[in-house]
Design goal:
It is built from seven helices and no strands. By secondary structure, it is mainly α. The chain has one domain.
Length: 170
């Protein structure tokens, strides 16, 4: 059982992380996205909604191994940091597992040399000759996954109604 001091320390850390994520959300929302395609804007919007839900849920990794503030990509209980959570929602389970295994306590800026992470953040992959753009397929899959999560959470009530209408017409 946590002592009062320990529980208030955990609560303060949870509030600090939530404020940090909220600042990141505000900064992201202030960015000009006019150069993005419709699909890119939709994926971005869905990810920002997912990030806001992650912040509201306030289930953040716990630093139990260091006296000073130290990031955990995935903590001992399996709780993902915001970046790991969004990557996993986007289908990057293998990348999340690898970073957690090899660089679990790295700050995001220290992950700038992770090519797959950079490609995911940039939202594009190399085009392959004669095939659909793999990045486009990845983004489509991300849209589908995030929409499903939002519908299940009741965040997209219109989608739930459309789904119900579709069942009646079968």
């Amino acid at each position: 059982m946590l002592t009062h001091f320990a529980s208030s320390s955990v609560a303060r850390e949870r509030e600090r992380v939530a404020r940090h994520i909220e600042r990141a959300e505000r900064a992201a929302m202030a960015q000009d996205v006019s150069s993005l395609s419709r699909l890119q804007r939709m994926v971005r919007s869905l990810l920002l909604r997912e990030l806001a839900q992650y912040r509201r849920d306030a289930r953040f990794p716990q630093n139990r191994g260091f006296a000073e503030p130290t990031p955990y990509f995935v903590d001992a209980e399996g709780t993902r940091c915001a970046m790991a959570h969004l990557l996993e929602v986007g289908g990057e389970t293998e990348l999340v597992a690898r970073v957690a295994r090899e660089r679990n306590n790295a700050w995001v800026r220290e992950l700038a040399d992770e090519p797959r992470l950079i490609a995911w953040l940039a939202g594009r992959l190399e085009r392959r000759r004669g095939r659909r753009d793999p990045a486009e397929l990845l983004r489509h899959e991300l849209v589908v996954r995030v929409r499903r999560r939002l519908v299940r959470a009741g965040e997209l009530p219109g989608a739930r109604a459309r789904r119900a209408r579709g069942r009646r017409h079968r």
